[in-house]
């Protein structure tokens, strides 16, 4: 039964990805499909299945979903999975919301895991270079 559910969710996600890839980028947010995909990914983000949660976090970041900021912040703070924390941080940086950027910078300064801090620092430097043209760390 668990395998069936995972397979079903995978097929549903694959369908959404192909639908997302076929939409022109300038009309993405005005299309009805965007809201449905965003809603489905938000449901996936609250799932107990870690793979679904991480992939939903990634695609919400790709979509630059403003509605996903609070759930991504929650995932970033509360997860014990380092990979999920990195994906949540990357998505928060892609969305560009001040709350997400703040929590990533604070974790870089005060985080308890050197490996995660190092990866987040590289992600933040990439974000800063793309956004401001230079590394800003204050």
Written description of the protein model:
Helix 2 packs antiparallel against helix 3 (50-63) and helix 4 packs antiparallel against helix 5 (82-95). The protein has one domain (2-132): Leucine-rich Repeat Variant. The mean pLDDT is 82. 25% of the residues are buried. It starts with a helix and ends in a 6-residue tail after the last helix. The protein is globular, with a radius of gyration of 16 Å. It is 76% helix and 0% strand. It is an all-alpha fold and 138 residues long. It has helices at residues 2-22, 32-45, 50-63, 69-78, 82-95, 98-110, 114-132. The chain is built from seven helices and no strands.
Instruction: Give the distance, in angstroms, between the N- and C-terminal Cα atoms.
Output: 50 Å
* Class derived from helix and strand content: mainly alpha
CATH topology: Leucine-rich Repeat Variant
Rg value:
16 Å
Report the order of strands and helices: HHHHHHH
Strand content: under 5%
**In terms of per-residue confidence, which ranges show pLDDT below 50 for 5 or more consecutive residues?**
none
The tally of strands reads 0
**Mean pLDDT, nearest integer?**
82
**Which outline best applies?**
globular
The CATH superfamily title = Leucine-rich Repeat Variant
Count of helices?
7
Please give the domain count.
1
Largest sheet report:
none
Estimate percent helicity.
over 70%
């Amino acid at each position: 039964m668990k395998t069936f559910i995972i397979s079903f969710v995978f097929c549903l996600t694959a369908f959404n990805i192909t639908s997302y890839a076929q939409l022109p980028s300038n009309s993405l947010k005005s299309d009805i499909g965007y809201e449905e995909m965003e809603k489905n990914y938000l449901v996936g983000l609250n799932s107990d299945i870690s793979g679904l949660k991480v992939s939903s976090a990634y695609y919400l970041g790709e979509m630059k979903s403003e509605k996903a900021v609070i759930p991504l912040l929650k995932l970033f703070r509360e997860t014990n999975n380092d990979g999920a924390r990195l994906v949540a941080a990357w998505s928060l940086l892609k969305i560009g919301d001040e709350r997400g950027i703040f929590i990533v910078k604070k974790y870089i300064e005060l985080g308890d895991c050197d490996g995660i801090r190092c990866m987040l620092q590289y992600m933040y430097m990439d974000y800063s270079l793309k956004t401001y043209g230079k590394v800003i760390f204050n």
